[in-house]
Design a protein that fits this description.
Structural class: alpha+beta
Strand content: 5-15%
Protein name: Maltose/maltodextrin transport system permease protein
Keywords: Cell inner membrane, Cell membrane, Membrane, Sugar transport, Transmembrane, Transmembrane helix, Transport
Low-confidence stretches: none
CATH architecture of the largest domain: Orthogonal Bundle
Function: Part of the ABC transporter complex MalEFGK involved in maltose/maltodextrin import. Probably responsible for the translocation of the substrate across the membrane.
Helix content: 55-70%
Radius of gyration: 34 Å
InterPro entries: MalF_N, MalF_P2, MalF_P2_sf, MetI-like, MetI-like_sf
Shape: elongated
Family: Belongs to the binding-protein-dependent transport system permease family. MalFG subfamily.
CATH class of the largest domain: Mainly Alpha
Number of domains: 4
Length: about 500
């Protein structure tokens, strides 16, 4: 009986998952993403095949992990790499077709217009009465405001009876009036231009048979430039909005050949490598020294000390880092108050580049040493106690035990974790974003970059804080960072043969 209930529950879960998957396919298709819809449909079909066919029974346990890797790792990375080969930015957000539609749908207001009055009607409708400069009257039928609509306008002999809506009422109905297009008897379209006036609207650009556009204002011809991603005039002037185009390796060439980007990139890359390396060494050094002390048999209250030393790792970084930002405050921070009291100095932690980098290293070492301490404590526990007993009989001291027994025996198992720690610190965006936000900024660069920026924060600033918001260039830098971290992972696996069961 219990087994049948379990089968029913699994069947119900499978049905719900299948419906959710098909709903996702529909969402992708409605969002005009046919390739994503096809990919989702293929994944659903593969999952159904694996879970229904007895031939693929063993694959049932690994399919969820494979799909998760594809969805959360492969797909975002592939999308990032693809964007890196385009000109995607705040000025080139749209596709070519959508940018063209925006230009063709753009309208301009001419000087022609009419004043209007609004008269309430039954059922919540309103009637608009227009008057031109010669006091000729025109009127619409009863109109319910609140949606985009085109309303025909007919001549009117005399002004209607009743009181017109006050200016306060017109202001309350402005949103609905803005969506109204009044079509005059001669076909002229008029839109709301002020709280008391409708003005004639004309298309700003007209589409030509050869695919070009004509500017209604001056008659100039616009043609698409698929290298720049813009509609351009004959004199080369670009018209916004731009559109996305593939530019090949242009972003990567720009990083290494354009002095505006290469110089700050080189500075940030050097600091990133230094930060990751120094922090890995510091956290490991402090961690192994504390782990060795915590394994001293004569130490009393070891559990209490372990708990206290573990606390920095237990508190979330998004809480600890702002606390340190306040402690290092140059004017009101407790650290400067203590230094001023005993030594008469108040360091400029956020203004001086060297001090800012030192502060970043101090804070990240505080946050990272408990992790290394825990790893080293476990590895030291695995060392046979007989080795230390034999060393004691030979008259060796603590330093000899540390450098001849402890450190050599834990160096091989800890080395892959040190490389992983280096890779993690290479992308430590959280620390920089919450502590310094890259400050102090360099004053001799054309892109936003600071002395404490890592490659991850530098990429973030280019993508979201620079005036151009160059997403494509940021994706190109992110791709380079990915290659570096991926290389570290391969070295980690090959050098220490983690995947070799016989190693």
């Amino acid at each position: 009986m219990k087994r049948s209930y379990l089968h029913m529950a699994l069947a119900a879960l499978g049905a719900v998952s299948l419906l959710a998957g098909f709903a996702l396919v529909v969402v992708f298709y409605m969002a005009r993403q046919p390739m994503l819809a096809i990919g989702a449909l293929a994944m659903i079909a593969a999952a159904v095949w694996v879970y229904v066919s007895p031939r693929f029974y063993a694959w049932r346990y690994v399919v969820p992990g494979i799909f998760a890797a594809l969805l959360f790792i492969v797909l975002p990375m592939a999308y990032t790499l693809t964007i890196g080969f385009t000109n995607y930015s705040s000025a080139h957000l749209l596709s070519f077709e959508r940018a063209t539609e925006v230009l063709v749908g753009r309208t301009v207001t001419s000087g022609e217009g009419m004043s209007f009055k609004l008269y309430p009607e039954q059922g919540g409708a309103h009637r608009l009465v227009f008057a031109d400069d010669n006091d000729h009257l025109f009127t619409t039928g009863p109109v319910k405001l609140g949606k985009a609509q085109r309303v025909p306008v007919a001549p009117l002999a005399a002004e209607p009876q009743g009181e017109a809506a006050t200016l306060k009422d017109v202001i309350a109905l402005k949103a609905g009036l803005s969506e109204l297009t009044a079509v005059m008897p001669d076909g002229t379209e008029m839109r709301l231009s002020s709280l008391r006036r409708f003005s004639a609207m004309h298309p700003a650009y007209a589409r030509n048979k050869d695919g070009s556009l004509t500017d209604a204002a001056d008659g100039s011809i616009l043609t698409p430039d698929f290298k720049r991603g813009n509609w351009v005039r004959a004199n080369g002037e670009a018209v916004e909005p731009g559109f996305r185009v593939y530019v090949g390796l242009e972003n990567y060439v720009q990083i290494f050949k354009d002095q505006r980007f290469f110089e700050p990139f080189g500075r940030v890359f050097g600091w990133t490598v230094s930060f990751a390396g120094i922090n890995t060494v510091l956290t490991f050094a402090i961690g192994i020294l504390l782990a060795t002390a915590m394994n001293w048999d004569a130490l009393r209250y070891r559990n209490f000390y372990r708990l206290m030393l573990f606390l920095p790792y237990a508190v979330p970084a998004f809480i600890s880092i702002p606390v340190f930002r306040g402690l290092f405050n140059e004017n009101l921070g407790e650290i400067n108050m203590v230094l001023d009291m005993f030594f008469g100095v108040r360091p400029s932690w956020f203004s001086d580049a060297t001090l800012a980098r030192s502060m970043v290293l101090i804070v990240n070492t505080w946050l990272g040493y408990p992790y290394m301490m825990i790893l080293c404590m476990g590895l030291i526990k695995a060392i046979p106690s007989e080795l230390y007993e034999a060393s004691a009989l030979a008259g060796a001291g603590p330093l000899t035990n540390f450098f001849r027994i402890t450190l050599p025996l834990i160096s091989r198992p800890i080395a892959p974790l040190l490389i992983a720690s280096f890779a993690f610190n290479f992308n430590n965006l959280t620390l920089i974003a919450l502590l310094t936000n890259g400050a102090p900024d360099y004053l001799d660069t054309q892109v936003p970059v600071g002395a404490t920026d890592l490659l991850a924060s530098y990429t973030y600033r280019i993508a979201f804080q620079d005036s151009g918001q160059n997403y494509a260039l940021a994706c190109a830098i992110a791709s380079i960072v990915f290659l570096i971290v991926a290389t570290l992972a391969v070295v980690n696996l090959r050098l220490f043969k983690v995947n070799d069961a016989n190693a």
